[in-house]
Amino acid sequence: MRHGDTPTVSAVDVTVYDVPTDRPEADGTLSWDRTTVVAVQVRAGGVVGLGWTYASSACREIVERQLTPALVGTDVLAVPAAHETMVRACRNLGRPGTVSCAVSAVDIALWDAKAKLLETPLADLFGRCIDAVAIYGSGGFTTYDDCVATAQLEHWIGELGIPRVKIKVGESWGTAEERDLQRAIHARRVIGPGTELYVDANGGYGVKRAVAMGRRYAEAAGVSWFEEPVSSDDLEGLRLVREALDLEVAAGEYGFDEPYFERMLGAGAVDCLQIDVTRCGGYTSWLRAAALAHARGVDVSGHCAPNLHAHVASSISNLRHVEFFWDHERIESLLFDGVLSPCGGALVPSADAPGHGMTLRASDAAAYRI
Fold first, then answer.
1. What is the phi/psi pair of residue 145, to 5°?
2. Residue 140 carries which DSSP code?
3. pLDDT (tens digit, 9 = 90+) per residue, 17-56?
4. How many whole angstroms separate alpha carbon 45 and alpha carbon 198?
């Protein structure tokens, strides 16, 4: 980019892909057999910035009808201004949910385009704080039998050397307590005593049941992290569980704007705040949410989308880790070039490739396009 040039957004393209899971999956409160990826490409100044979200195909219409008309012709380097423009353009649609996912995908693409124009990795544009981003293996779905669960756990700790893993619990809205506990005990047997074990109930328990199960998980399986023991909308319930247990309580993945995270932090609901860059409003809002947590002395964990989180996660001092989610890791390796190696239990953002370093393999993705 030549000095004095002001590159502007010339086009915003959006495509949607529907990728089947490798086998049926479920957690405590939901089941699924496919994942939808909404990919956005922002064209400006001769470069193409890439972003995506894991959300409904309804995001496509929001990008095409609300966001693109508002962005074409604007300064691609002024990403916070573009972010505010997008939020204002969607005022009558409401920010939480699908709108925020659409904004997230475009915001990520804008930051990627800016870094490419400046010929610098996103980690350097944000400013590196750490060199390697710790990850934890995440999957362990309630649909798995012991053989499938064992293979997945051994892949993470053996082949990849990831020293922390998470499984789903709270099966059937928290009514399968004994199977939940036995699955956690099985996971501990497989991973041994030196690997951290986390559980995620996806809001499947009530407060009293969550407290009782949290104690059992800690005592019987050495669990140290209890994610969404109750609904993340129940801030008082999260606080009560957190105060009753020694293990850490985490939530925040359904945060779609900064006020959500401020309310959760203000309620003392979590020991570690989860932020999802594909939901919260992209890199712009992710950094703001991380700053809110930093001000309260709370660590942050990047929720899912590991390769999109790596660069921004490396720029904060209160990072705990990033979730190396089974579905998303598989999809990112399937559809995109430039994904990072998880070997050793950490992602190391490239110091050479500009932007986040990933490109869409359109030919491979075509089979999943809808």
1. -85, 180
2. -
3. 999 999 999 999 999 999 999 999 999 999 999 999 999 9
4. 45
Q: Which two tokens stand for residue 20?
A: 């089947």
Q: CA–CA separation, 282 vs 308, rounded Å?
A: 10
Q: Which CATH class, in words, describes the domain spanning 124-360?
A: alpha beta
Q: CA-CA distance, 86 to 83, in Å (whole number)?
A: 5
**Cα–Cα distance for residue pair 360/333, rounded to 1 Å:** 10
Q: How far is CA 329 from the centre of its chain?
A: 11
Question: In this predicted model, what pLDDT tens digit does every residue of 281-324 receive, in sequence order?
Answer: 999 999 999 999 999 999 999 999 999 999 999 999 999 999 99
Cβ atoms of 163 and 157 within 8 Å: the answer is: yes
199/240 Cα distance (integer angstroms): 18
Q: Is 275 in contact with 300 (CB distance < 8 Å)?
A: yes
Indicate the CATH number of 9-120+362-368 among 3.40.630.30, 1.20.140.10, 3.90.470.10, 3.30.390.10.
3.30.390.10
CA-nearest of 202, 265, 276, 267 to 237 is: 267
List CB contacts of 98: < 8 A, sequence separation 6 or more.
55, 56, 58, 59, 62
Topology match between the domains 9-120+362-368 and 124-360: no
What is the signed CA dihedral for 235, 240, 243, 245, rounded to 10 degrees? -110
**Domain boundaries, given as residue ranges, for the chain:** 9-120+362-368, 124-360
Buried-exposed string 342-369: b where 16+ CB fall within 10 A, e elsewhere: beebbbbbbeebbbbbbbbeeeebeebe
